[in-house]
Backbone:
């Protein structure tokens, strides 16, 4: 594992001061691994940056990568949705980013992600 990818539920857990997630992020960063934040997951979790200090800090960390949904990735996400016969763009973008980075996903939505990618390692919050 080269780090962690966060879905919206994972980001919300961090923002709500979930000690397990805070400790997990600290361990990952101490080991020089990367944190991947798909922009679609951030859009679902971010509501008030001034009040979401933990989340804002994670996005700005040197060890974090905010991944946009550009044209190339959008096409790949669409194909992934078609194969899984589902429609949640954010979930598929999280799966796509995690696969590309070779990372486990921190999620509160394990069943939906498993429908898209049964092989993907998940850490449920």
Residues:
């Amino acid at each position: 594992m080269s780090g962690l990818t966060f879905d919206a539920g994972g980001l919300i857990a961090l923002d709500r001061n979930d000690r397990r997630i805070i400790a997990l992020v600290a361990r990952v960063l101490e080991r020089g691994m990367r944190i991947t934040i798909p922009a679609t997951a951030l859009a679902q979790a971010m509501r008030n940056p001034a009040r979401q200090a933990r989340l804002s800090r994670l996005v700005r960390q040197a060890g974090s990568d905010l991944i946009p949904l550009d044209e190339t990735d959008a096409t790949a996400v669409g194909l992934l949705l078609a194969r899984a016969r589902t429609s949640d763009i954010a979930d598929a973008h999280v799966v796509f980013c995690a696969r590309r980075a070779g990372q486990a996903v921190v999620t509160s939505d394990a069943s939906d992600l498993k429908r898209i990618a049964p092989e993907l390692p998940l850490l449920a919050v």
About this structure: The chain has a mean pLDDT of 96. The beta strands are 3-6, 34-38, 64-67, 104-107, 122-124. The chain is about 55% helix and 15% strand. The domain at 3-124 is CATH 3.40.50.1010 (Rossmann fold).
